Amino acid sequence: MVPADQGGGVMRTDLLTDPIAGLDEALAAADAFDDVLVAGLLRPQKIAGLTELADAVAGSPLAARVAEAAEKTAAGAAGEEHFVSLAAARIAVFGSVHDAVLARIAEATGRPLGEEAVRQPSEAESPNLPAAARSWLSDLARAGWQGIDHDLISASAPVISALLAEPGMRRLAVLLDGFAAELAASCPGAAMERVPVRRWGDLWSRGMLLTLPGVAAAPAIGTVTGRLLPLGVDLLEHATAAQAQVHAVVEPEDGTTPRLVRASVTVPKPDTIIGAGIWQLLRPHLSLLTAVSEGRSMNLADMPVTAEGDLLWQDEHARLGEPADAFATARVALATATAPAVAPLDRHPVRVAVPVFLEGYGIEGDEDALTFTFAGSHLAVETDRIPAAGPLTSKAVAGSSACIGLLRWDGGFRLQPLAVETTVRKKTTAVHAGAWAGGTTDKAGVKAEKAATDAAAVLRERAGRLLRK
Predict the structure, then answer these.
(1) What's phi and psi for 418, nearest 5 deg?
(2) What digits encode the pLDDT tens for the residues 71-93?
(3) Can you say whether the dihedral through the CA atoms of 144, 145, 151, 156 is positive or negative?
């Protein structure tokens, strides 16, 4: 049964609950290989996991290489080239899951998928550093997650230091730096009560492929001129860093099809600055946050943009435009906007975050476990992803009548709210997660910003005192 029109076209929410053919089998094959990585590839005990991975790519161009790699690994005679083949197979399997999920979203929303992105050749790089990184990752795979110790992890330090000094190797360097830190915090592996099997499998396989020439090639960069209409802000917070990613629709000046784009900014932060105070760190680097907060469009002139929909934000190519209501954009422009392409190495279901607009839904559950219902189908709502740095709350979502959100996938489709329309004093009111991004007069926001300002002042004073000593 097709649900009623929910604005911006018919949203086939029933398709989000229907099973996707082959998806469970693909994930099972990847999980089986990940189980092999737990004990290590030196003398694998769970040979079936290798066979399942090889079978999963049997109909692909990887078939012969992966079959040979699985056979050699099972016999304890695998080399680095075989581990690379296994990593490629694992990434290909998750890529197929990613593509199947996006295809289902495209069917449900009626929006076309982006075409394959063109990649720019990477600059020539010394083969020695990637080879050293690949050697360490191979040693890691041989030992397995249960076999890691501080000696093994510390062996990565000189390789990572050398990689960080090379701008062209920064992507691999940052991945290995974070991966090694996680592993070091979990040593010894034999004493771990719980192993983050899929996460470490993701990092290992991605790292292995990034050591190959050309894999880290940058996406082709063009420019866009037109009107940018923000939809919402996804705020990610870590103890030492924060990122704001603005999702928007751009209407090109030449009249071509509107397209979905993103603009991101990431900054380091002290762990004492939390909540609304984070915006103080982000604002100076992305003027778009002011437009989001004020509910305005931006006029772009030759703004650099990658083939994958990422705006390489430069303030000189943008100026504030007319008022632009995000819900009007979602109702009118979102349905026809084309989705950006996705790079092969980035095709993983955990990275799926597609802007959607929903209304006319019912609501079940409480504020901690909400579900939107549509003519018998259900969509789980991830209220735990709502940032504390804005006025949007799970209570507002529970009382909403319309929602702009990011459709994600984690064993099933889930919705991350970015903004909702709700009734306040008998009046329909929009509440945005990024409402305080460019500043606010909201009492709660002002209070949180003042606390952050005081914390920053204390930190500056302490830093100055240390420098004077």
Answers:
(1) -110, -30
(2) 999 999 999 999 999 999 999 99
(3) positive
Beta strands in 410-465 (DSSP E): 413-424, 427-432
pLDDT at 241: 86
pLDDT band at 456 (very low <50, low <70, confident <90, very high): low
Amino acid identity for residue 56 in this structure = A
Contacts of 428 (CB under 8 A, 6+ apart): 401, 421, 422
Distance (Å) of CA 207 to CA 56, 88, 212: 21, 10, 9
Closest by CA to 26, choosing from 60, 53, 62, is 53
DSSP state of 338: B
CATH 2.40.50 fits 345-432, yes or no: yes
CATH number of 221-336: 2.40.50
pLDDT digits (tens, 9 = 90+) for 226-251: 999 999 999 998 878 899 999 999 99
Please check whether the two domains, 221-336 and 345-432, share a CATH topology. Answer: yes
The alpha carbon of 438 is separated from its chain's Cα centroid by a whole number of angstroms, namely 23
CB atoms within 10 A of CB 85: 25
Beta bridge partners of 91: none
What burial letters (b/e) apply to 247-286, b meaning 16+ CB within 10 Å? Answer: bbbbbeeeeeebbbbbbbbebebeeebbbbbbbbbbbeeb
Say how many CA atoms lie within 13 Å of 92 toward its Cβ. Answer: 18
Q: What is the DSSP-derived secondary structure letter of residue 219?
A: B
Tell me what pLDDT residue 270 has: 81
**Dihedral angle, C-alpha 279, 283, 286, 290, nearest 10 °:** 90
pTM of the model: 0.89
Q: What is the dihedral of CA 345, 347, 353, 355, to 10 degrees?
A: 100
Domain ranges of the chain: 25-112+127-211, 221-336, 345-432
Question: Which position has the token pair 């914390």?
Answer: 455
Is the Cβ–Cβ distance between 395 and 423 less than 8 Å? no
